[in-house]
Design brief:
The complex is a heterodimer of chains A (about 325) and B (about 650). With about 325 residues, chain A is an alpha/beta fold. Chain A has eleven helices and eight strands. The mean pLDDT of chain B is about 95. Classes of the chains: A alpha/beta (about 325), B alpha/beta (about 650). Chains A and B meet through loops of A and α13, α15 and α17 of B.
Amino acid sequence: MQGLIDRLSALLSDGTVARVLGWKKGDMPYNPEPHMFETAESLKDFVYDGFCGANLSKMMIEASKLEGKTAVCLKPCDSYSFNQLIREHRVDRENAYIIGVGCRGKLDIDKARANGIKGIEEVSGTELDGPDSVSFKTIYGDKEMSYSDLLLGRCHVCKGKEHMIYDELWGESKDTADSERFDEVKALEAMSPAERFEFFKKELSKCIRCNACRNVCPACSCRKCAFDNNNFDSQQKANVDSFEEKMFHIIRAFHVAGRCTDCGECSRVCPEGIPLHLFNRKFIKDIDELYGEFQAGKDPEAQSPLTDYTFEDCEPGIVAERSNG
Amino acid sequence: MQRIGVFVCHCGTNIAATVDVKKVVELVRFEPGVVHAEDYPYMCSEVGQQKIAEAIKEKQLTGVVVCSCSPRMHEATFRNCAEKAGLNPYMVEVANIREHCSWIHKDMEEATKKAVILARAAIAKVNLNTPLQAGESPVVKRALVIGGGIAGIQTAIDIAEAGYKVDIVEKTPSIGGRMSQLDKTFPTLDCSSCILTPKMVEVSTHPNITIHTYSEVDKVSGFVGNFTVDIKKKARSVDLDKCTGCGVCQQKCPMKKVPNEFNRELNTRSAIYTPFAQAVPNVPVIDREHCLMFKTGKCGVCSKVCQAGAVDYEQQDEIITEKYGAIVVATGFDIIKLDKYDEYAYSQSPDVITSLELERIMNAAGPTNGHLERMSDHKPPKNMVFIQCVGSRCADHRGKSYCSKICCMYTAKHAMLIRDKYPDVNVTVFYIDVRTPGKNFDEFYRRAVEQYHVNYIKGQVGKVAPQPDGSLLVQGVDLIDNKQIVMNADMVVLAAAIEPNPDIRKIATMLTASIDTNNFLTEAHAKLRPVESPTAGIFLSGVTQGPKDIPETVSQAGAAAVKVIGLLAKDKLKTNPCTAKCDVMMCNGCSTCANVCPYGAITYEDQEVRGPGVREVRRVAQVNVALCQGCGACTGACPSGAMDLQGFSNRQLISEVDAICR
């Protein structure tokens, strides 16, 4: 990590960049937070370890409006989001200096908690070149867990170790995929409509509408969200039933369809642990099946199948046939 | 708050028999904004319109809802009426309680309930309507005709005669189309080329007509009065200006084994070829797929023998861009593939042929120089069987549900010509029905039966089996005598169904013209606007709209021309004010709308945006209202809801849905 800090300091000192967008130590050892570093000295608080899951791409929308370049640390999967934002003209490539940081999968502290590791005071072994196991110092004594058992759900369907866009690379990456990307979606598809509705009713009933998913999502970058648009009478309309409020998530999934890179931030930040990525991944699977494989953010020039038309596109009737079958 | 008047039409009994009109009036009276409601037997009549005009003046109406037939019928009537009474025409909405309600329901109570709901939705919309002003756009005084068959030729001549410029785009090397392949034409039996070639010459020499053969429409943008079309002129490899049409190149070409499409592949042609003797232009093309020079780089015979130096192997495809005010589609037809009709042994025996192949065999310029003979052993046939409705009027998925319309007549023609020229040949026709609705058509068919003794059998053929001796065993049924028939034939002729040219799907998509399930182009109105597409500025000529014979095609081609002339005669068109509008405060500048816009009406520019707490330069969408056709694709694609369609705003649509769901 020191090597990365040294490199970032050098970029700040020689004037290549005016600021650095990275992660800063949090109040706990497992919750570093995104931070804009303006000076080389402030980089003493910079951190990059297994808990730096936050995707910094979206913060570049505001950063790229600032004077001078911003150095931004992007993991391989974050680089897809950045590309998608370039495609939507939301970030200025010229104002970004992208450090493609290595990644061996990011960690989910809840996995440790679920394993009975509580009262955590210190964590070690989560750095990029760290060992295969993570050590916890807790108020109940020392505990240990393997790195791979702690991985975030999204890392088990890792998109790969390649950065889609960068100016320079730092550190080795590892493809952590060990399950099929659409297994979870297939399980949903295997349910009967009634079972599926019950599943989502149960999951979404936990939603407290804190908007964390919307705030973190790189595709949800509208200046003003359609849900906050006072042009619609529906804005202050009372709900007809308890599920109507949850339509938020379904509408949100439609709004990001074809643009979602499957970065998994929505599920990572949800304080209620709702598997929100399932909506988006279902759309991705459908797009792949109906229009051919498409990965948003892989190529900033590529036309999204949902906003493009080719003579080979399936007829809309096929969608109806599928949903009947 | 609007002051809305609701006018409920009985449409005689069309609506009033199923919808309790009085009850609708009573129930909508209490809807928000409604200050006046009445009913009348015919709202579209002069008296009905007078009632609307009077109410607008007396009750100071700011909005009008007419509950009547489809807006496609009378929206313009009621909007004009309101405009004359001093109301902005876009403050008028039509609730369709006829096609969408009374015509499709039987139960009066249910239908009345639905009529009220439809009226309520329209009232909710009018409450949010704002006055809109139509703009104007100029008309390009030039027409494009896609397809150079008899339909396209006739349309082009008629438009050109009215003094407007016309371009014909024809995919094949020559104009002429299907008609140029025919031998004789019913019901007068005059030679097809004898009546077609004068028209081909006329079209090629007309000062107002430009012909692009061996060319295809590549891209279409714009809208009625102002289309921009890219035409791809495929490399002919022969210079159109230098070539004298002497034909030596075709004689000397060593590659003579290319299937001859013009003769339905019954014989072969050279790699450099003109499809037929009367081709216009009489300039050959090199079929690069088969030419030895292009395949191996070694040959060049045609270039060496060409006195005019017209052969140019280096020629490239060329794209030309032209502007047009109107586009006529005249892409014609082909016959269906017979691979699903194996019972007729078409793929097994060369002596089972299609009627179009028989046309070529009977033609003096055809593969047999006009001698009727079997393609297998070139012997004259003694017994011929014609099978009708091969793929037409087909109940299963193998063929077409429709009647191809021309087969009964051309089969009678074939039978008659054969019996006339070869009286010793027995001709049998298996048919489902003989359909002859046309001037002098039934008389023609009767002649075949009575004068030429053609053996007509009502019934279908189940199987054609090639025999070891080279004959064909035909098993059929005679429904009148109720017996099975087994007979030997030397030749079997299949009246294969016709279908629209397969290219039509691509062309229709480029033109945003709708097509039906059989790939025929849809009319704006099946009865009242049969030569117009629902897409403004697109017109239909010939079989592209539905099966037709030559007289009908020529009449329809003329009708399409009149519609085009009517459009081109206008200097300016009123534009639709229902165009998209961008709320720059909401716009993300993401370009999604520009990507989905089929008219290229959306561009982006950096603009200073000012609003509460905002003052910055942003990349925002700009709509060119001259190009926008109000399709609404952008409003659906816009993630933030910044794009909205005037006259059909998101808010209006949602309030309609809310009114329906209330």
